[in-house]
Amino acid sequence: MKGAELEQILADCSSGSLALDEAAARIRAFFFQDLGHSTLDTDRERRTGAAEVIYGQHKTPEQIADLVSALSDNGQNALVTRASRQAFDAVLGREPEARYHETAAAITLTRTVPPPPHTTVAVITAGTSDLPVAEEAAVTAEFYGNPVNRINDVGVSGIHRLLARLDAMREARVLIVVAGMEGALPSVVAGLVDKPVIAVPTSVGYGASFGGVAALLGMLSSCASGLAVVNIDNGFGAGYLANTINRL
Amino acid sequence: MKGAELEQILADCSSGSLALDEAAARIRAFFFQDLGHSTLDTDRERRTGAAEVIYGQHKTPEQIADLVSALSDNGQNALVTRASRQAFDAVLGREPEARYHETAAAITLTRTVPPPPHTTVAVITAGTSDLPVAEEAAVTAEFYGNPVNRINDVGVSGIHRLLARLDAMREARVLIVVAGMEGALPSVVAGLVDKPVIAVPTSVGYGASFGGVAALLGMLSSCASGLAVVNIDNGFGAGYLANTINRL
Amino acid sequence: MKGAELEQILADCSSGSLALDEAAARIRAFFFQDLGHSTLDTDRERRTGAAEVIYGQHKTPEQIADLVSALSDNGQNALVTRASRQAFDAVLGREPEARYHETAAAITLTRTVPPPPHTTVAVITAGTSDLPVAEEAAVTAEFYGNPVNRINDVGVSGIHRLLARLDAMREARVLIVVAGMEGALPSVVAGLVDKPVIAVPTSVGYGASFGGVAALLGMLSSCASGLAVVNIDNGFGAGYLANTINRL
Amino acid sequence: MKGAELEQILADCSSGSLALDEAAARIRAFFFQDLGHSTLDTDRERRTGAAEVIYGQHKTPEQIADLVSALSDNGQNALVTRASRQAFDAVLGREPEARYHETAAAITLTRTVPPPPHTTVAVITAGTSDLPVAEEAAVTAEFYGNPVNRINDVGVSGIHRLLARLDAMREARVLIVVAGMEGALPSVVAGLVDKPVIAVPTSVGYGASFGGVAALLGMLSSCASGLAVVNIDNGFGAGYLANTINRL
Amino acid sequence: MKGAELEQILADCSSGSLALDEAAARIRAFFFQDLGHSTLDTDRERRTGAAEVIYGQHKTPEQIADLVSALSDNGQNALVTRASRQAFDAVLGREPEARYHETAAAITLTRTVPPPPHTTVAVITAGTSDLPVAEEAAVTAEFYGNPVNRINDVGVSGIHRLLARLDAMREARVLIVVAGMEGALPSVVAGLVDKPVIAVPTSVGYGASFGGVAALLGMLSSCASGLAVVNIDNGFGAGYLANTINRL
Amino acid sequence: MKGAELEQILADCSSGSLALDEAAARIRAFFFQDLGHSTLDTDRERRTGAAEVIYGQHKTPEQIADLVSALSDNGQNALVTRASRQAFDAVLGREPEARYHETAAAITLTRTVPPPPHTTVAVITAGTSDLPVAEEAAVTAEFYGNPVNRINDVGVSGIHRLLARLDAMREARVLIVVAGMEGALPSVVAGLVDKPVIAVPTSVGYGASFGGVAALLGMLSSCASGLAVVNIDNGFGAGYLANTINRL
Amino acid sequence: MKGAELEQILADCSSGSLALDEAAARIRAFFFQDLGHSTLDTDRERRTGAAEVIYGQHKTPEQIADLVSALSDNGQNALVTRASRQAFDAVLGREPEARYHETAAAITLTRTVPPPPHTTVAVITAGTSDLPVAEEAAVTAEFYGNPVNRINDVGVSGIHRLLARLDAMREARVLIVVAGMEGALPSVVAGLVDKPVIAVPTSVGYGASFGGVAALLGMLSSCASGLAVVNIDNGFGAGYLANTINRL
Amino acid sequence: MKGAELEQILADCSSGSLALDEAAARIRAFFFQDLGHSTLDTDRERRTGAAEVIYGQHKTPEQIADLVSALSDNGQNALVTRASRQAFDAVLGREPEARYHETAAAITLTRTVPPPPHTTVAVITAGTSDLPVAEEAAVTAEFYGNPVNRINDVGVSGIHRLLARLDAMREARVLIVVAGMEGALPSVVAGLVDKPVIAVPTSVGYGASFGGVAALLGMLSSCASGLAVVNIDNGFGAGYLANTINRL
Description:
The structure is a homooctamer.
Chain A: H1 3-15, H2 20-29, H3 44-48, E1 54-55, H4 61-73, E2 78-81, H5 85-92, E3 99-101, E4 106-109, E5 121-125, H6 131-143, E6 148-151, H7 159-163, H8 166-171, E7 174-179, H9 185-190, E8 197-201, H10 213-220, E9 228-229, H11 235-246
Parallel strand pairs in A: 1-2, 5-6, 5-7, 7-8, 8-9
Antiparallel strand pairs in A: 2-4, 3-4
Helix pairs in contact in A: 1-2, 4-5, 6-11
């Protein structure tokens, strides 16, 4: 609850230009809007600078289409992550401008192009199996208006491939590094650049990888200083964080 | 290896102004300086924008004093984390300007004041037991020249205490949120601000806290978008990352 | 074995009004009734105040229908949790008054309406994905006669949504708070009310959520005092406990 | 923020009997009181029905004595958990009426005797090694005014010992059952009574007990319905929850 | 290699009644018989007192039928565990006397009835969901000739059901106790009898049961002395061990 | 509660030879004897065939001496496990015939020599570091009157050492096999004998041994049929179980 | 970057026989070749002595066929691991000489027969269920030209089967030992030979095997010195390592 | 049991030149030598090519000195790992030529210099905290006669330091790479050389390093092919394996 707004309501209330009931309602309205089965966070963009995103897993195509339309009707852009092609078909029936990002399994609908930052987000993968997670990150960053530079398949077992891309990496303002298995790539990258590095462990691997745990622990324990780690396979979180940083 | 420098060496070599042996040595010199028991990363500041930091744990007071003096002799600032008072006494014998940060268990020696960013880093704790980790973060951020605003003891079981500090939190450009036990505070904070939030789990708690694991998993699984998580008790990493972001 | 009953049997036995064999049998009858493949706990309602509940998982539709009919024939109410629609169809063929609760995946058959407590149980969810577990809790509480107030989708990343429902929450005599991911919501709620709070972790989430472990550990480690925690996804247990408390 | 109070402030503000600045301050005062290194939750008793408790671990005797005196000066009762005898000596120097509970490692100072509930809390242990945790629970319940009935050393490997205490157990309105090792006792007790059972796993055991994990998992997975589980060794939480329930 | 046999071979070799090559072959024959893709342990019954058992999981119906026939041709009895009905159909086509145990998912073929011990093995379950594992144990014990007494559904949340079967339990010479969830039943049983108790954790349960881990840890940590624990769901191992003990 | 005794009490009650109050008391006396801080299981030997054993850990020397004297006064033998030399000194002051087993850290006091079984228990170790656990097992078995044959340091990395002891191993009626690290020895032994094998994992090892977890999991997962596994370092449990089996 | 090559380029550059741009490009070419979606490691064979291998999991048949053809066009041999029969059919349509290894689930295409080492790699399994992993190891070793000797089904529960193969085992220069469940076989083998032993844990087993974790921990904790352990089910890694050693 | 020796004994027995008893004893003597509290593996060097090594942890200085003297008396070299300085002092009192390796915490006594391989073992560390483990590996390799080349402090966060040592790394025939934290260094090294790489995880790190688990999982999950992994902190195992390979 920002101070100035509260003071204004009280001033209006005090001056009689705002009825007592209305004043109480407005103060409460900073706090909620009840839609029965869900509670819309209408205040979210003002508070956090980014509109609501729809997490597609566990939702039916119909539910997803409803939510996208609702946002669209309010003139807002929509991003759906972990969305199946079936969900996209349902959305497309209502919003013909929606777009499906196959590898990222994401739907986007852009009604208002966000003002772009002029600086780039790099999305780097250790192997081709990490691409779905990396694309979720890249599509998210692009959804919020960030130029994205993709650098693929430069894992640490062939370190020269990485070194050859140093210039491209150093041009980015924020770097997202996506790796499964032992998850060593972010440590190497963070030792080569002077920008924030977001490390995304993926569930790529088997056996002692434990579905991404090996990569996650490795990134948290990194000998490189100041890695920003997100959850296993959380490409969306990485793209969202990169946007928050790149817009500073 | 940055392109321009390489081209220059080759041009000099080609024009005869640089001997063949010397050219090979210089190219290799981008790569190392061997000091026997350790390998100095002289190139680190150019690459990553921040000088070497000394991790004090497992090192003797003498070793720490040696390392601080070495940096000092090169005119560099020094930060030692996880340093005992004994280590500080050893350092003080040689560097009378060194300073000990009791709660953070850190030593700093500032020979050149870094150009400050004008924007603030907020360091927020859930409880007073989280202070040592929070101070390690704050001291690190200050070491690199960032103004720090400390907000203490605003854990989620008394949520109104947090809401009362909203204005202070929203003034920061980067927020570090330090919490043990269930580690819920970063989720709440990230829903209230539009700036990057760095979440630091601490080992405060017992039983099912498992030395910080509960807080770590909670922060990684947060329903708030885009938290940047670091290792358990890693105040240094959080402060370092905050500086990297705040200097953008 | 309650004292008074035992003394009475012994008195009757001593006075000769009860045969020796019959007395021994009656004492044993406090202890069991053998039905071959299972052992009916006929004494359960007297001991624990609540009739037997059928856990539907791993049982065939026929088995479930048999069990419901058996309870119905004894004039008892029946609750089946984790029941598929197939199981409900089998039950409906025999008990036309049975009712299916889709989201909760539960079957109820109410022959005798239990005397209601006049006080309310609140069932609160962090997100819409937590609804199946929350509904299992709500249906269970209602099955035992408790009025239930549902408050949905008020997770901690939009804390104002929660604060807006404070009055509703404070009207309840017992609160069930259902949350997946980091499971922070019960900590916040428990800091706002003076009634018992039952925390239910759900398996909603991915990666470091580890199927509900992150939420479970968070609730057990909560900085809020006195949370009552139940197993992951155990909506039934929460509803049952809420009834036990609300009937005090 | 309770509705009525807010409306009153606004009414006073509107009528001119309350200055605009003062009104804003009062609304904010629902939310905090800043003491520098910590943030006093003065509103806690109104919100949650129970005054602040001091967690003694990690605090110096001086800090603990300061906090107890502060509460005492405000006429409030004080409970310190996980307190050493050194801490008690420091407290005793200032508050001669303070009392130390050796087994529970707790300090209490009672300035105002709370109105007692007339119903009893039973605290039951599986073995004598569980006594420290059980006493923390019992002392906490007594601190809040609850009569406590202790039933010790009735673990499941000698089940007849437990059955012999059935009458005592059934007289309680809330039961706290404390057990380490396999933690089976709460399951057995919950099958014998019709009151809420709070299960407290302890770290008693070795090897596959994993510091209380075996008991914790067993209690969460219990075949008995509706156990309320708290953290490993969390006697305080159990006592606090028992009080919340017993006061309904 | 038993001493007497070796001495005999050497004596025969020395006396010339056994050729040198043949003597070496016979000594080696104590050690192996190579069948290409597998290595038959022909010596097993002499060494361990029990013939080979076929673990059906991961084997095709044809492979299982081959193995049963091979044993049958040698006049040996056959037991196949974790066998599907398809596997049984394949076996039945060749061995019309084979029998399928539906709940246990086991196939038996008895060509020679083993000499029975006169003492009984009790197989006790906590709940009906534990039956498949219990039946695997019972069928295995019966396969080796042991009389088995089944006592079902006597879990600890209705402890009187268990006490009513005490006489039956005390008649057994070895007891197998099968339980999932918190796995407390073996602890209670072991406190009531003076015979060996074999504890079998099952994967029955959800959430914090972790597929039988809660029950396994509980049984290993039991406060009852001297439980013999086997792997999760390992009914075969329990039945095999019971036979080894009962034949002493 | 054994049937015959109950019938007798009822018969006496019915015939008037036993007063009603006394009859109820006697039935209850099957169930308990309350000593305030602990609840003596006087019925234990009748039920389980073995007297109470004192677990020394967490108990003071005085408490241990009290308990040994109490047993001694009742003419019972006493075994204290995990007992320090200090505890033994306290016991010796009162019971001059008590004996301390250094390696096993156990105290025994034998007032009545138990009737020996004529068959032997073998206690086998993989390495010399496993001796303390093995001795706890051996001393326990001997305390209950079993002849024990110790076979030491025959781990699987020098398999011929084990094979050379085959005759000794085959003479035992029950075998206890104690091993840390990978815990493979019981699997090998169980493949060579036709008697029950009790596997005891020890905490010997480091790193991926995880304090005995590697050995524990290995023994539970053994390819050998029918291992009886006990808790990590639980020599007492193994010796107790061996006695229960050997007395059959 | 090998010194001699670098010096040569610089010499040519200095002498004018190599243009400056070309020299920089060649130096960079040590480091990468960008193919858009992936980054070919053309330098790999020179650096590590073994050509690229295709990990088939997560790749479509078309992608696999493309990659095999690309290698084939360059005259290189191709090995695809974790390949389905569908993948093989796609490859066969283009490369009629390709061969499918059913049990190993591997595809090989050999254009140039590698010069064989004259020494043998032994691949030993504990049970028949370990064959798929063992065959992946054997096929990999053979792909690189190593003679392989397979020894199957010699697990530790029938130790004499293993001893009978000692001569065969001792003829190998490197031994790969594949085992699931408790994974004890490598420990026994390593105590019998004087050659490097590579231990491969498999996911064979259930319950406390935890998908190969028991075997993995056992091998890492082995009492035998100097086992080389690889990931669970990683037959390829074992075969690759065996080749690296055998070629020394 | 090697074939030729057995045939010879049998031939001698058959020809009468060897008494029957003596023949049986000799065959058994392949299998053991019993020293009471331990079982000497006299056959070990013949079987595995390396003499016995003493693991110093858990042994008293006296015991260690006894064992070293025993080996010395037999003219054998001695290596003691995890040995304290106190242990060394005890050894030195008897064997003045013994040598203590401070960082490695190892004692060596060399009576016969082993014939050296002419090829080198490289021991590489990620950071200076990894030195104790690396030195244990280096001292072990040197004990067996291998020339060792140490390369220190070349962790992946400053990758150019590593690249500068490529020539030195490529001169080795076997490489041991020691790393804690995320343990990424072996992956990078294995991508740069064509020789076997032995990966040693260390317990250096905190929080999510979990005492070396993060490094261990990372090395097992490495994207580099064919790493040979040993237990956490197992420098000895790595040095032993390197010797076994280097002597091929």
